[in-house]
Design goal:
Blueprint (H helix, E strand, L loop, with lengths): L1 H12 L7 H12 L4 E8 L2 E8 L2 H13 L3 H8 L3 E3 L2 H4 L5 H9 L4 E9 L2 E10 L7 H22 L10 H24 L3 H14 L4 H9 L3 E2 L17 E2 L1
Antiparallel strand pairs: 1-2, 1-5, 3-4, 4-5, 6-7
Helix pairs in contact: 1-2, 1-7, 2-7, 3-6, 3-9, 6-9, 8-9, 8-10, 9-10
């Protein structure tokens, strides 16, 4: 039944533009399981390299926190090669991932289930599922999550298989990896400007991106280029309208 179920999922998500396959897979996964959203992280032995896709804002926060802080369920799942299940993050997450847990709870994430994407020695990432209320996934739901994990690995291998000659990564994955450096740098700059922790600096960056309806990476580039300031007085943009703790110059 499991191979047949994987084929069913792939037939549903692998339609049209291959670049859209990861988004479709996470969207279908969120529809079929009792979860609030899902994210797909590109991972290497160096850590969380960036978010391939996320179904919603909280899922994006989930991935961004783990990427910037270098801790969280997906980091452990990738490192250990087995799922990490946290049905009540408030009760069990603080002692294990203090920075991540604080930021995740602020974002409304109450439970996280991380599944490593791997086939033999090949590991490409992690499928992260979250709930906005505490609660476990039962055995049948965990089995379905594992099926989606195998389907996600197939999707990423298919994408990587279309890498142009002479390149190590498919352009979609290369772009994801490039974003890590700039978001890290921007977050570090905000910690100094606003005198806050890394987790809080990331939340400030995300709040500005959400409030201005701009991609997180685009806002991070403004911080790095010093066009956006999160220090004292950073509460208006160039048009004079209120912004969440950031000033564009």
């Amino acid at each position: 039944m499991r191979p047949e179920r994987i084929r069913q999922i792939l037939a549903e998500v692998m339609v049209g533009d291959p670049d859209s396959f990861p988004e479709r897979l996470c969207r279908v996964c969120a529809e079929r399981l009792p979860i609030s959203g899902a994210g797909l992280a590109f991972m290497t032995p160096a850590g969380h390299e960036g978010t391939i896709t996320a179904t919603d804002g909280a899922a994006a926060v989930l991935e961004d926190l783990q990427q910037v802080l270098g801790e969280g369920p997906c980091v452990d799942a990738y490192r250990d090669g087995r799922p990490v299940l946290q049905p009540d993050l408030a009760s069990t997450g603080t002692s294990r991932w203090p920075g991540f847990t604080e930021g995740a709870l602020q974002a409304g994430i109450a439970a996280v289930f991380a599944f490593p994407l791997q086939v033999g020695a090949i590991r490409l990432g992690v499928l992260d599922l979250y709930r906005d209320t505490p609660g476990v996934l039962d055995l049948s739901q965990l089995t379905e999550a594992a099926v989606f994990t195998e389907a996600a690995m197939t999707v990423l291998l298919h994408l990587q298989g279309k890498t142009p000659p002479g390149q190590l990564l498919h352009p979609r994955l290369a772009e994801v990896a490039q974003s890590r450096r700039e978001i890290h740098q921007a977050t570090g700059m905000i910690t100094v400007q606003a005198a806050v922790s890394l987790a809080d600096a990331l939340l400030l960056l995300q709040a500005h991106a959400f409030g201005s309806e701009r991609p997180l990476l685009e806002v991070a580039k403004d911080v790095v280029a010093r066009r956006l300031w999160f220090g004292p007085g950073g509460d208006h943009d160039e048009r004079g309208t209120a912004e969440p703790r950031g000033t564009v110059s």
